[in-house]
Amino acid sequence: MKKIHLLLVVLLIFFTVPTFANVLAEFKGKVTDANTKEPLSGATVYISDLKATTTTNSNGEFTFTNVPAKGKFLVEVRYVGYKTTSQQVDLSSNATVTFALEASVIESAEVVITGTPYSSNNKTNSLAVVSVNREKLAQSAGTNIIDAVSKVPGISQVTTGGAISKPSIRGLGYNRVLTIVDGAREEAQQWGDEHGVEVDQFSANRIEILKGPASLLYGSDALGGVINIIDDLVPPAGDFNGNFTTSYGTNNGLTASSLMLQGNTNGFVYRGRVSYKNAYGFSYKDHTVPNSGFNETNFNTMLGLNKTWGYAHLSLSRFNTNVGLVEEGPDANGDYLDEDGNVISNSDAKKRKLGLPFQNINHYRAAINSNILLGGGQLKTTLALQRNIRKEFEESKDEPGLNLGLNSYTYDVKYSFANSGTWEPTIGVQGMHQTNVNTGDEFLIPDYVSDNIGVFAYLKRNFKNGALNAGVRYDYKNIDGKDLFEDGNQVFTAFNNNFSNVSGSVGFAFELAKNLNLKGNVGSGFRAPNIAELGANGKHEGTFRYEVGNSNLKQETSLQFDLGLEYNAEKVTLGLNAYSNRIYNYIYPGNFNNETIPYDEEDGTVSILPLYRFVQTDAQFLGGEASVDFHLIKSLHFENTFAYVRAKNLADNSALPFIPAASLNNELRFEPTIKGLKDSFIKIGVTNVFKQNRFDSFETETDGYTLLDAGIGTSLKVKNGKINIWLTGQNLTDKLYYNHQSRYKPAGIYNAGRNVSLGISVPLL
Q1: What does the pLDDT read at residue 12?
Q2: Fewer CB within 10 A of the terminal residue: the chain, N end or C end?
Q3: pLDDT at residue 21 above 50?
């Protein structure tokens, strides 16, 4: 496998070096109002496939420099108060392209790049994709990046306190949802409950969420969908700017700040960011949960070239977090007790210094992303090295009990043939080499070596009123678990498993009438069992359970049917999605027959833990999402979303565990025009989560609840951009509630209560 990695790098260098001699090229255009023909100053123009952006001047004109002299690319134009528009442009033409924007009170769907090798307008994309921009991420006041998108219909989160959120798409999470960062799949022991997505929340310019099987383009672990975290595009040539963002939350004292600087000097692009977050224990009603705080320090930088041959960017990052782990819930009086049985006061629980046990995670990532124009097409590559070091400290802050070191080498190489505007064929190869080593004195998973490779072919056919797409893929994965002995006792038994699969997808997007689009997709998915499912044998700290894996598990395969209808009129938008997802050999952990196991703690005591085993069954997921957005007047928005998923074990028609309850979100947003200010808003939102009365035998019913949110914000235009200020409140009634997917629910720990967050973002230079 390492030889394959080396060969791919050599081929990449061999093919791309001759292209560096391309002549310097420019692309010019103009943006106007479609009705008045007046130029629009300050419109933002994007070419996502080239990671390039610029803005229009006072005459509505824009210029891209250091772009290819030929090739067809999708150019996107955005301007507040107008419909976002996109158009495929042939850069070999010297003609100035004019974009005429139509005034609109509706924010039209953004161009998405997830799910198709070429950037494409959402109207021609058959997959269900939702995009959340930076402004909405900030205004959500989420404590982490997944918390910030959890109200998107079809998206939920498995939480362990305020610091840890794992994404779930249509009821599927963990290794069934792939997270993409810097163009590379994140590999960070994502099977675990005690940590979330390990990426700087501030670095996301937007998040694109692909709902449904994405195994065709991403391989194993994308059976449920993809969370694609996309960084900023590079600034215009000759520009140097920055930004400072900071916020404070009252519930857990969360302070979060980030400083970013970036520039573009004749196509040499660079960016640096440092971020810090710190929080004490989260609260509900009159109680603060002790040792549920966290702190996080992130560094990332990007260096690259944007030239006539395409672009190549090197991204380096370090994510570091310390997360307190809660061992016990409250007593019968709702109080939290220390080791001596004394009540822990709220003032003590609000101390920012973490106690034992806690977890320390360092995640290092180096990724090279490039898009090289070659033979009339585009060669896109992502080569990444990741190192994840996860330590759990239980009895000592100096010596970790659990100490896992995971090294992952991933590659993703796609070649999209010359785009004629009609046919878009793409072929690709992806793979990973991974090693995991235990160096602590406690064990949960074995040492292992894993290799996988996948090849695929994808074809999209564009028509005047829509598009068809189809693809096929083959995957192979080998995982080699190692023996491990402790004090003469065998903790793990060696195993060697091979998995392979052929998957495919067929989809369409068609404009039935003006503003009315129909989408459909049939896709198969594939997921090999993860290392915990195959080989776990230990205490899962912070989740109150002991897990035992099963090395005889089979791979999961799925077949999903997805149908969507979108309507975008002048004052109303409507979206409907329905899906059926059948998963064969579905893997899940369960505490069957209330089985328990004695566990020797490091302090000499013996704990009795519930024993969870991994089993398989055929499963059926049925559900849908709906959204309705009314803009009865220009400044008033009424947004509504609904999501529901029903999952059952086909062996006995019983419910599957860890399935989110149905939810209904309503938000009324008023955007007044205030002299001297921009983007002002006042919003009030109501979240209704229904009772979850379908649950597995080891779970309990979860009552429904209603949460009230509100917010206010505005922007002040300054010479080098705008200053954004916002004040938001979540759970303003301080409702006591359990989310069905909260890992603290079995211990009787409620979800977070009232939180008020104040934030400001200031441009620099």
Answers
A1: 44
A2: C
A3: no
Q: What is the dihedral of CA 501, 459, 310, 202, to 10 degrees?
A: -60
Copy the structure tokens of residue 363. Answer: 């995640």
> Between vectors from CA 537 to CA 533 and to CA 539, what angle results, nearest 5°?
105
Q: Write phi, then psi, for 747 (nearest 5 degrees).
A: -90, 0
**Is 192 exposed, middle or buried, given 0-12, 13-18 or 19+ CB atoms closer than 10 A?**
buried
Whether the CA torsion 536, 537, 543, 545 is positive or negative: it is: positive
* Residues paired with residue 284 on neighbouring β-strands, in sequence order: 287
CA distance 671 to 56: 25
- 356-376 b/e (C-beta count within 10 Å ≥ 16 → b): ebbbbbbbebebbbbbbbbee
Distance CA 417, CA 458 (A): 11
d(CA 514, CA 596): 61
Instruction: Please work out, in degrees rounded to the nearest 5, the angle formed at the alpha carbon of residue 214 by the alpha carbons of 181 and 656.
Output: 105
Angle, vertex CA 282, rays to CA 403 and CA 353, nearest 5? 55
DSSP structure string for 630-689: EEEETTEEEEEEEEEEEEEETTTTEEPSSPPPPEEEEEEEE----TT-EEEEEEEEEEEE
DSSP 8-class letter at 656:
P
Which three-class secondary structure state does DSSP give residue 182? Answer: coil
Cα distances (angstroms) measured from residue 267 to each of 75, 145, 379: 19, 31, 19
Asked whether the predicted pLDDT for residue 76 surpasses 50, the reply is: yes
DSSP state of 39: B
Q: CB-based contacts of 55: which residues, under 8 Å, 6+ apart?
A: 42, 43, 44, 45, 62, 236
Q: Which amino acid is at 453?
A: I
Q: Encoding tokens for residue 484?
A: 């491990």
Is residue 68 within 8 A of residue 52, CB to CB? The reply is no
642 exposed, middle or buried (CB, 10 Å; 0-12, 13-18, 19+)?
Answer: middle
**Torsion angles phi and psi, residue 109, rounded to 5:** -60, 140
Distances (CA, A) of 282 to 90, 198, 393: 54, 20, 21
| Token digits of residue 549 | 């894996």
CA 33 to chain centre: 35
Report the run of H or E that residue 3 belongs to, with start and end.
Answer: helix 2-16
543-590 pLDDT, tens digit per residue, is: 568 888 999 999 999 999 999 999 988 788 899 999 999 999 999 988
Closest by Cα among 614, 653, 616, 612 to 746: 612
Amino acid identity at 310: G
The rounded distance, in Å, linking the Cα atoms of 615 and 243 is: 49
Cα–Cα distance measured from residue 602 to residue 722, given in angstroms and rounded to the nearest whole number: 54
Give the mean model confidence (pLDDT) for residues 285-310. Answer: 94
Strand partners, 469: 460, 507
Q: What is the pLDDT of residues 682-713, one digit of tens each?
A: 999 999 999 999 998 888 999 999 999 999 99
Residues 349, 142: Cα–Cα separation, whole Å: 21
Of residues 528, 747, 522, the one with CA closest to residue 616: 528
Q: Position of tokens 């099963």?
A: 550
Secondary structure of 110-162 in HEC code, one letter for each residue? CCECCCCCCCECHHHCCCEEEEEEHHHHHHCCCCCCCHHHCCCCCEEEEEECC
Asked if residue 400 has a cis previous peptide bond (ω within 30° of 0), the answer is: no
The two three-digit tokens of residue 238, written as one number: 């000759």
First-to-last alpha carbon distance for the chain, in angstroms, is: 47
pLDDT for res 22: 45
Structure tokens at 603: 């302090």
Amino acid at 144: N
Work out the angle at residue 373's Cα, subtended by the Cα atoms of residues 67 and 464, and round it to the nearest 5 degrees: 85
